[in-house]
Amino acid sequence: MPPRKTPPPNRRKPKPRTEKADVFLNIPYDARFEKLLFAYIAGISAFGFVPRATLEIPFSQRRLERIIRLIAASQYSIHDLSRVQLDRHAPFSTPRFNMPFELGLTVGLGKAAHSWIVCETVRRRISKSLSDLDGTDVYIHGGTVRGVFRELCNAFVRTRRQPSVEQMMQIYRILRSRSASILRSAGAKDPFNARVFLDLCVLASAAADNLVSR
Hints:
The structure is a single chain. The protein is α/β, with parallel strands linked by helices. Residues 12-17 have low confidence and may be disordered. Strands 2-1-3-4-5 form a five-stranded parallel β-sheet, with helices on both faces. Helix 4 (126-129) links the parallel strand 4 and strand 5. The protein has helices at 34-46, 63-72, 98-109, 126-129, 145-155, 165-186, 194-211, and strands at residues 22-26, 50-52, 76-80, 115-120, 138-140. It has seven helices and five strands. It has a single domain (22-83, 91-211), classed as Rossmann fold (3-Layer(aba) Sandwich).
């Protein structure tokens, strides 16, 4: 009778890494919106997603084509249409059209696998500034960090990871506490910079993975 073979040790197979979904972030790039940029990065990362933005696009590449590809490659997009006032910086006093334009590009793609949401600061203002969106749910954050977190919770209520507002606040505080060193490292004056944006996203993702249960 042949000797019995010793069964191999029970080794657990490593779990395959799940790729995080991208969220295209369409927001104003100005100093008044800085705290909400940090809020969006913190909140999106808390849900286990990766923030993407046109800040990443090099000037040497055809910008419009890259924007369309970036939106198309993302599973979600957030379009903040809060900035409807005139931009009074020289040389011209004009409204800002980038945000509604990029929303239009998103809607025009018509991708069934892509979900988009619209955010605003003031309730019912969008019915005048962009009446074609009548019938669309608009998420009103009131221009506050906690408001952004609240509305992200409403928008992503069906996703697998469900962070609390307090957990998002913790991530936000980590970003704010490290922002000065990140700016110095990049030689930048504000966070609306490709290198700074990417560094903030990496930091937020690591903080979210540590703080928020999967």
